[in-house]
Amino acid sequence: MGIFDFLKNKPKLIDEKSENIVLPNKEELKTNLDRIQNEIFQFLKPFGFKKKGKTFNRQTEEGIYQVINIQSGQVYSNLYGSFTINLGIMVKEVYELESNNKQKVIYQDYDCQIRERLPHLTIKQDHWWTILDDNNKSAKEVIDGLSSHGLDWLDKFENRDKICRNLGNFECDSPRGKLDVALIEIHRDKSKAEKLFQEYYNDIEIKNGHKEYVKGLADRLGIILKD
Question: Domain check: are 106 and 189 in the same one?
Answer without folding.
Answer: no
